[in-house]
Design brief:
Elements lengths: L29 H20 L3 H23 L2 H35 L5 H5 L13 H32 L3 H14 L3 H16 L6 H25 L3 H9 L4 H12 L1 H15 L4 H6 L18 H10 L6 H32 L6
Helix pairs in contact: 1-2, 2-3, 3-14, 5-8, 5-11, 5-13, 6-8, 7-8, 8-11, 9-10, 11-14, 13-14
Keywords: Cell membrane, Membrane, Phosphate transport, Transmembrane, Transmembrane helix, Transport
GO cellular component, one term: plasma membrane
Protein name: Phosphate transport system permease protein PstA
Length: about 350
């Protein structure tokens, strides 16, 4: 009996691939050179014709992408052209995102340098109508109120984060997490109204004092510290906790001696960034602290000047002639940006110094 023969199996047809180009690829400097040349042309056209900066940057991004993709398609093939197209999209998005940042810094510095002198840092606005005057009282008021805010907010925020990560189990922890999430998104003016209403109960209507402003800023600062510190504490490996428990160390001592030292760099960064977040708030301080031309260093007695409110009043009520007040407002804004920059650099330094060393 003969065995039926099987038909030979045929493999499915593979899609035809585009032949690979064997020509010389474009230089890795081709894309930056194209965008750089177009950017120079755009700057020249902007200076000559007065074009809008955003329009110039957008035009450079679109035209540069088309030129690079067309040249790559002609020389290197479709696959490499697609890769360069995606790369151009990334660089174009980055360039477009840098426009408001660079323009903001340039505008503040160019207009703030007009009054960046010694008088601005060692005099107040008492008796000043036109030229002269400074923000000595506002700088000190900002530092005092921000310091009180940090003293009140940092312990509460860190202890809350430790509870949620190390101890929080059950409905209470879920409600605290929900409340912190809600407080993170509340408008700053709401915190100012809350602090004002709270102090009106004890001191009567029209109360203005620096401590009330610190309470308002604490409402904004505590949720930021809790959320950021909670994420930092979650990054501590559980193996460290388990090793400590295995040696018979109690939980509280494990948290103090193992968890917190390991997360110290991240916690320091979180606290510093939270301070930088609230130091420039204006609306809560307008409601609770107000403004004064004199130097008041007592946060429990009367109005105090702060840099954000000082800049606001100098811009909205500059006096006659108005250019002197406007110049003081720009300089105050520049000083505030420098303070925030210094705080961010301190956060970076803390993270670098206290981060766990993994090298042997």
């Amino acid at each position: 009996m003969s065995t039926p023969t099987r038909a030979p199996e045929t493999s499915p047809a593979l899609p035809e691939l585009e032949p690979t180009r064997v020509g010389r690829p474009l230089s890795r400097w081709f894309t930056p050179a194209v965008f750089g040349a177009l950017l120079v042309v755009g700057v020249v056209l902007q200076l000559v014709a007065g074009l809008n900066t955003v329009l110039v940057v957008l035009s450079v991004a679109i035209v540069g992408t088309l030129v690079v993709v067309a040249a790559s398609r002609a020389v290197e093939g479709r696959r490499k052209a697609t890769d360069r197209f995606v790369t151009c999209l990334v660089y174009g998005a980055f360039l477009l995102a840098m426009v408001p940042l660079v323009s903001l810094v340039y505008e503040v510095i160019s207009k703030g340098l007009a009054r960046l002198d010694g008088e601005f840092f060692n005099s107040s606005m008492v008796g000043i109508v036109g030229p002269g005057g400074g923000a000595y009282h506002a700088i000190l008021g900002t530092l005092i109120i921000t310091g009180i805010t940090a003293v009140m907010s940092v312990p509460v925020g860190l202890l809350t984060a430790i509870y949620l990560v190390e101890y929080g189990r059950g409905p209470l922890a879920r409600w605290i997490t929900f409340l912190v999430d809600v407080m993170t998104g509340i408008p700053s003016i709401v915190s100012g109204l809350f602090a004002y209403a709270l102090f009106v109960i004890f001191f009567g209507p029209g109360v203005r004092m620096g401590f009330a402003g610190a309470v308002a800023l604490s409402v904004l600062m505590i949720p930021v510290i809790v959320r950021s510190s909670e994420e930092v504490l979650k990054l501590v490996p559980n193996e460290l906790r388990e090793a400590s428990y295995a040696l018979g160390v109690p939980k509280w001592r494990t948290v103090v001696k193992v968890v917190l030292p390991t997360a110290l760099a991240g916690l320091g960064t979180a606290v510093t960034l939270a301070i930088a977040r609230v130091i420039g708030e204006t609306a809560p301080l307008l409601v609770t602290v107000g403004i004064t031309n004199a130097t008041n260093l007592d946060p429990f007695d009367g109005r105090m000047a702060t840099l954000p409110v000082y800049a606001y009043y100098q811009l909205t009520q500059p006096g006659v002639p108005p250019e002197y007040g406007i110049n003081r407002a720009w300089t105050a804004a520049m000083v505030l940006i420098v303070i925030v920059l210094v705080l961010n650099l301190i956060a970076r330094l803390i993270s670098r110094i206290f981060s766990p060393k993994t090298g042997r």
